[in-house]
């Protein structure tokens, strides 16, 4: 499956919950920074024309030192503004958070196959809880106008903003994705970072 799609890894957060002054995206785990686990997986697939890391100014130097393609977050108002900037740059983009080290190309392909051409966004949703996974999703430029309206109203929640979008494709997590709890695992604490690097049973190469 060959698709000329842009991928972007969101790495603009401050990792407040991690503590110790560590930015989790660039914390070394399993012999390399956490973000490189994701970058290399996306680069080694045939799905993406380019892989970018979307970074804040404070993280840009770390990304450049790793030789990563970077785009700078000039607004820094959270994930919604990050996605908005990306769809203004690119017609279509697959977005994933930098703290999801176990994403698989197989599952990303499954998302792409569920993403109809007329959809402005394709977002995984858990059927059991209705919880969305907006930081593992495909967004298209037609969503930009609504995002601008959300900003004007002071609404920065992705979930609340996309509720106003027409033609959103919600992809059923439990029925479409293989091992979804592994796929959507994200690192939020320093203990989880250490676990990923040392003993996590999902870290299989």
Q: How would you sum up this structure in a few lines?
A:
By secondary structure, the chain is of the alpha/beta class. 35% of the residues lie in helices and 21% in strands. The protein has one domain: Spore Coat Polysaccharide Biosynthesis Protein SpsA, Chain A (Alpha-Beta Complex).
Can you describe what's shown?
- The chain is an alpha/beta fold.
- The chain has a single domain (5-198), classed as Spore Coat Polysaccharide Biosynthesis Protein SpsA, Chain A (Alpha-Beta Complex), CATH 3.90.550.
- It has 9 helices and 9 strands.
- The strands form 2 sheets. A 7-stranded mixed sheet has the order 5-4-1-6-8-7-9, sandwiched between helices.
- α3 packs antiparallel against α5 (144-152).
- Residues 201-205 have low confidence and may be disordered.
């Amino acid at each position: 499956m060959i698709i000329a799609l842009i991928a972007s890894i969101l790495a603009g957060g401050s990792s407040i919950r991690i503590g110790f002054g560590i930015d989790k995206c660039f914390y070394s785990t399993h012999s390399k920074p956490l973000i490189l686990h994701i970058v290399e997986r996306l680069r080694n697939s045939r799905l993406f024309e380019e892989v970018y890391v979307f970074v804040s100014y404070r993280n840009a130097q770390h990304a450049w030192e790793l030789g990563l393609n970077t785009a700078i977050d000039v607004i820094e108002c959270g994930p919604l503004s990050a996605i908005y900037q990306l769809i203004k740059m690119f017609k279509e983009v697959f977005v994933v958070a930098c703290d999801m080290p176990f994403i698989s190309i197989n599952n990303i392909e499954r998302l792409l196959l569920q993403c109809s051409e007329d959809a402005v966004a394709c977002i995984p949703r858990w059927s059991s809880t209705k919880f969305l996974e907006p930081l593992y999703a495909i967004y298209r430029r037609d969503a930009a106008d609504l995002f601008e309206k959300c900003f004007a109203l002071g609404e920065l929640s992705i979930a609340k903003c996309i509720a106003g979008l027409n033609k959103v494709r919600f992809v059923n997590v439990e029925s479409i994705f293989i091992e979804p709890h592994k796929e959507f695992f994200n690192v939020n604490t320093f203990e989880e970072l250490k676990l990923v690097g040392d003993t996590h049973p999902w870290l299989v190469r």
